[in-house]
Amino acid sequence: MRRLNRKKTLSLVKELDAFPKVPDSYVETSASGGTVSLIAFTTMALLTIMEFSVYQDTWMKYEYEVDKDFSSKLRINIDITVAMKCQYVGADVLDLAETMVASADGLVYEPAIFDLSPQQREWQRMLQRIQSRLQEEHSLQDVIFKSAFKSASTALPPREDDSSQPPDACRIHGHLYVNKVAGNFHITVGKAIPHPRGHAHLAALVNHDSYNFSHRIDHLSFGELVPGIINPLDGTEKIALDHNQMFQYFITVVPTKLHTYKISADTHQFSVTERERVINHAAGSHGVSGIFMKYDLSSLMVTVTEEHMPFWQFFVRLCGIVGGIFSTTGMLHGIGKFIVEIIYCRFRLGAYKPINSVPYEDGHTDNHLPLLENNTH
């Protein structure tokens, strides 16, 4: 009884088989079918390789939300060289809350030579070429995000020559912590001193002819310092054509959380607008000579996440490629074979033309071949 039930179950399962086997004796192969199969297998191999390269690649996903963190401090990373001696210039930050952050809180004044060595000049040209490409092709920023901590350092390399030239410039580098409100970081003549209504710079003791605010921005960023990230002002160089030159940079800072498979960092992106003019009170151009970087923070925060295609999606796409090519090539081969057979049959029928025709009295003709008579003697 059990054996009978087992046979019934087995026969029922066989009837549900969606992949019936065809005996080899009923399978007919052809040269055209082999050619189509070869093309199909080659196409599948190429598409599989391309799909695997897509599976290995990653992309950056951007999400936007309101920045609710206003209590923390904002870090400003600075590396600027000014073509004046260190005792003549001073740098500090003054924000909208009238809070002054002096340069002594984190900046270092280092005597330097303003002219770059050949190796440093080549580094600057390369950085400027990258900046121009980033302005034209914004998708390159994703590559920079993914290569953070892996690429070479973007800092200015040290001089390779032992120059005996005396220092004629001042390199101001380091970092400052400021409030997360709009502010103004500036470098001007004289050291800064606190003032009840703000602050002032002791510029009276500096000769006016020594004013030269030609400068080079080797690095300027906001937030956590991430090696490998290129910022909009890195590599910028400005030459002052007048002693009373004012350089202004209007910066909009966007808080950014970066999450890749290599790092996770809280940094900031920023956009900048540049302006420069000569101070001439007689012509109505008022102000103070120096370098002014006025920054403001965006209320939106950007979250940049590196994503990867899941394996199940890659497997489904791969099955779609294999099945789609098999079905499409089989259908095209069948249609092509059908058309060829029709054309071939028409050519064969056209080879049998009538030899003669027998007219009837009503005007019709008989196209049938005459029967052969068997004459017997």
From TrEMBL:
Name this polypeptide is given: Endoplasmic reticulum-Golgi intermediate compartment protein
Keyword Membrane among record annotations: yes
Function: Plays a role in transport between endoplasmic reticulum and Golgi.
InterPro entries: Erv, Erv_C, Erv_N
Residue span(s) of domain Endoplasmic reticulum vesicle transporter C-terminal: 164-331
Cell location: Endoplasmic reticulum membrane; Endoplasmic reticulum-Golgi intermediate compartment membrane; Golgi apparatus membrane
Pfam families membership: COPIIcoated_ERV (PF07970), ERGIC_N (PF13850)
Gene giving rise to this polypeptide: ERGIC2
Keywords: Endoplasmic reticulum, ER-Golgi transport, Golgi apparatus, Membrane, Transmembrane, Transmembrane helix, Transport
Native species: Catagonus wagneri (Chacoan peccary)
Domain Endoplasmic reticulum vesicle transporter N-terminal, chain residue ranges per copy: 13-98
Record-level GO cellular component terms: COPII-coated ER to Golgi transport vesicle; endoplasmic reticulum membrane; endoplasmic reticulum-Golgi intermediate compartment membrane; Golgi membrane; nucleolus; retrograde transporter complex, Golgi to ER
Family: Belongs to the ERGIC family.
